[in-house]
Specification:
By secondary structure, this protein is an alpha/beta fold. Helix content is about 30%, strand content about 25%. The protein contains twelve helices and 22 strands. The strands form five sheets. Strands 1, 2, 3, 4, 5, 6 and 17 form a seven-stranded mixed sheet that branches. The relative contact order is 0.12.
């Protein structure tokens, strides 16, 4: 069988693979990009983009309920055409996917873009649809897929995942969401606000990945107003006519559809990676260096959701850049990873920045807090629900992290991530300008609460201002 020889083979044309491709192209090295399955990245096709369209529709429609406060009449007669709503989601989704393809693989020749599933024959030899590629370096960026327990597969299309949810033409009458992480919460709240009878289940006692107890308590209370949440017990599914019964602990509900939101599985099992000459590590995920993306001291690099470490687009982009740089360089370079930042686009937003609650040394950590109820801007918006918690080192005052559920959390989280990245102290943050009235004033209040609990203070008679020398 004829072999094609290249410097670098990239397996997967998702976000990580495409960012890696950008670095490899710039190096002038020869390459092939291999992709099996749908193009267009997980984010554009079945992830962050179509979900945000659905969230926006749901939030706008739900907003009608507050119009009576303003004296707007007729809002109660507004109705939703579910078919048109889902059609809009699909139209924008297709637009996002087309943009990705047109800006990446559409103009690539068959010589460098191979469509099909790759498998390892030898450590440096791949086979794709009967063609063989020998590569000096290989980047694995094959992404992930939704987890569906094997017994549930017998229920056919009544079990939805993000791979199938956005293909639906009609909203179901009723829906159970099993797994209340990011996707489960976002879709669950959106469906409930669109008029679907929705029930949420999770075997954990928390939701949205929250581990700060105060924020988790507030989130459960707030999100639970949109749809019931049953926590602390694993869910079981049985058939009941053409419907499904979901049972967890003492709670049971009969629904038309179930959204399985149990996480994602790395796409490694069809690569025959056992032929790659590397240590497969724990759970068959090869051990790799997150600062170089190199697997051991091998010629293979792992980037994006396939490593199951930080399954977020911006992280996949960084990992792709690192893998592409190192695969096309003579020497391996380690890169500092950015401050962790995660945003759940429920209303109000749930956000994690920097160190998580469970990662803190409580004896050395100060915690600042503000409740959103009295915040002026939030009250005007009708979104004065939630809490912000910020963490700092007690002695130095250096900001360490934050968890929150609040309006415009997506913006506050970015500000905090940038500050943590710059290693700023609470005192330095309070010397930044804060406008009035804005949601950022809530963050300012949380920082004042935190500032009172740290030892390092600003100099001068007015601690919020810097003195001129």
């Amino acid at each position: 069988m004829e072999e094609k020889n290249v410097d670098i083979a990239i397996i997967g044309s998702g976000s990580a693979g495409l960012y890696a491709l950008g670095r490899v192209k710039a190096s002038g090295k020869s390459f092939v990009l291999i992709n099996g399955g749908e193009q267009g990245t997980t984010c554009a096709r079945v992830g962050c983009m179509p979900s945000k369209v659905l969230i926006q529709i749901a939030e706008d429609y739900h907003r009608c309920g507050i119009l009576g406060r303003y004296g707007v009449e007729g809002h109660k007669s507004l109705t939703l055409d579910g078919e048109e709503a889902l059609g809009h989601v699909q139209d924008l989704r297709d637009n996002f996917v087309d943009r990705v393809i047109s800006n990446s693989t559409a103009q690539m020749s068959d010589e460098v873009f191979l469509e099909g599933y790759a498998r390892f024959i030898e450590p440096h030899l791949l086979e794709v649809n009967g063609k063989r590629v020998r590569a000096d370096k290989i980047i694995i960026a094959t992404g992930s897929r939704p987890v569906i327990p094997k017994p549930w597969q017998a229920f056919g299309d009544r079990i939805l995942t993000t791979d199938t949810l956005f293909e639906q033409e009609q909203l179901p009458e009723s829906l159970a969401v099993i797994g209340l992480g990011v996707i489960g919460l976002e879709i669950g709240q959106s469906m409930a606000r669109l008029g679907v009878e929705t029930t949420g289940f999770d075997q954990l006692e928390t939701i949205g990945g929250l581990d700060d107890p105060a924020v988790a308590k507030a989130a459960i209370e707030i999100i639970g107003r949109d749809f019931p949440l049953h926590l602390g017990h694993p869910a079981e599914i049985t058939e009941e006519g053409d419907k499904l019964r979901v049972t967890a602990g003492e709670h049971s509900v009969v629904v038309d559809k179930v959204l399985a939101s149990l996480g994602r599985r790395p796409n490694l099992d069809n690569l025959q990676i056992e032929n790659a000459g590397i240590d497969l590590g724990v759970h068959a995920i090869p051990a790799y260096n997150p600062n170089t993306m190199q697997i051991g001291d091998s010629h293979i690099f792992l980037a994006g959701d396939v490593n199951a470490e930080r399954p977020l687009l911006h992280e996949a982009g960084d990992e792709g850049r690192i893998a592409g740089h190192n695969a096309s360089s003579d020497q391996i370079q380690a890169f500092k990873r950015k401050t962790p930042l995660a945003i759940n686009f429920v209303d109000p937003n749930i956000c994690h920045v920097g160190k998580r609650w469970s990662e803190l040394d409580y004896a050395q950590t100060a915690v600042g807090e503000v409740n959103m109820a009295p915040v002026g801007r939030a009250l005007i918006m009708g979104k004065n629900k939630g809490v912000i918690r910020v963490y700092a080192d007690k002695v130095s005052g250096k900001l360490l992290g934050a968890e929150m559920i609040c309006a415009k959390g997506e913006n506050l989280a970015h500000l905090l991530a940038w500050c943590i990245e710059q290693e700023l102290t609470v005192g330095q943050l309070l010397q930044m300008p804060f406008y009035h009235p804005v949601i950022e004033e809530a963050l300012q209040a949380a920082l004042y609460d935190l500032y009172a609990k740290v030892e390092t203070k600003n100099s001068g008679p007015i601690t919020e201002l810097k003195m001129i020398d």
